[in-house]
Amino acid sequence: MIMKTTFQKYAAYKDSGVEWLGEIPEHWETMRLRNIFDFCKGLTITKENLEKEGIPVVNYGEIHSKYGFILDPTIHRLKCVSDTYLKDNQKSLLEKGDFIFADTSEDLEGSGNFTHLVADIQTFAGYHTIIGKPKRTLNSKYVAYVLDSFSFRNQVRTRMNGVKVFSITQSILKELTCWFPSPEEQTAIAHFLDDKTAKIDRAIAQKEKMIALLKERKQIIIQNLVTGKKVWNPGQNAWTEPAEVKDSGVEWIGEIPEGWEVCSVKHVLEIPITDGPHETPLLLENGIPFISAESIKYGRIDFEKKRGFISESEHNRFCKKYKPKRGDIYMVKSGATTGNIGIVDVDFEFSIWSPLAVFRPKTEIIRTMFLYYFLDSYSFKKGVELKWSFGTQQNIGMGVLSNLPIATPPIQEQTAIIAHIEAQSAKIDKAIALQEQQIEKLKELKATLIDGAVTGKIRVPSVQEKK
């Protein structure tokens, strides 16, 4: 077990004077961030200003969520800016021990995130960042744990501005409240949390490794079945290697069972591969969901990740080219996630954008889920990878996709393969869900432990009360 310790409380508490914080240990003090930090802005730049070499720059995307709250530019790979910025942007240079806050995010949790810079090398704070330079001696690790606590983050949430994009300002940060024990206690609490959270993080890492192994096992099952490396053997009542095979003529598919056929993808589709409009529509607050590559997650369409909404008239115009239908399969054909697929499993109206290629199976030739599993197999992904091209980003054309080969067994065999994949997937998905639930509980434990220690709700074993 990670922790079964029953923690003691402090001998005496007092009202913090802050309604949402409640009581704190009697000898602790509260203060505004304006008394802890001098604040200033990061560089006013855009992504186009970033380079591969130069002076490392911490942009809002690198803050907290990506690297945790300790960032070391000598370890973490950061984009850079030219040294020409040194002349007129000295205030945006970071020093060891500085804190960097994200001032904007599309995620409610993101704005107000922070990173604690630990390397003593020239580094800039970049776009959408606010720098906090400590102006008094405090244990910086303790401060980081306070800023990461439930109590402090709830305080940030109540002050953030925005609906779709959330932001926080220097003036808001200055008025936020922190709380502090003695310097010795700060150090002891930081050491305590370092030890406990490291153990929890190791347990989480082990479970994440197990999830990765389970997902790999699932992909191997899919790969073996949709490429004919395993077939149903009635005599043995089991899935075994086929007795008779032939060369598929495709290196990345390999040998296939006798009775299977290889053809171009276009021959198993009801309509030629198409995509969404090659124009950027006006996005609205309400209307018809408009999705693109970022919505393709874990083999499905995540409508929470939609680009926005479009008008009904725009939707109807786009539908003249392509109208989504249950059972259609989308493949990302450009960008970092090229090759990812998702299946339409809803009946409500929506439209897609041009980065998505549409596969609509001809069901009398190929079962929808067999095509889905084949497109998601290691073999087909390898075929896509061999054919995609690079410009500013990787991409693959619809004509190329149409002519990629696919191996197909008889319909009856496809049905048996789908049933077996789904049965095995259900067992693996259940095991994955269990691991994910345990990870969430560990994360909750970690967050509760941090909040309890830094607000004085628990007295860590090595901390002695002030006399």
- Give the spatial strand order of the biggest sheet: 4-13-9-11-6
Shape verdict: elongated
Weakly predicted, low-confidence segments: 463-467
Approximately how much beta-strand content do the residues carry?
A: 15-25%
Taking the sheet with the most strands, its summary is: 5 strands, mixed
Mean pLDDT: 91
Helix content: 25-40%
Report the C-alpha radius of gyration, rounded: 28 Å
**Helix/strand structural class:** alpha+beta
Count of runs of 4 or more consecutive helical residues: 9
Number of strands: 32
What does this structure look like?
The model is unreliable at 463-467 (pLDDT under 50). The chain is elongated. The strands form twelve sheets. Strands 4-13-9-11-6 form a five-stranded mixed sheet, covered by helices on one side. Strands 7-5-12-8 form a four-stranded mixed sheet, with no helix packed on it. The longest helix is centred in the middle third of the chain and has 44 residues, at 183-226. 30% of the residues lie in helices and 21% in strands. It is of the alpha+beta class and 467 residues long. The protein is built from nine helices and 32 strands. Strand 26 and strand 27 (341-343) form a beta hairpin.
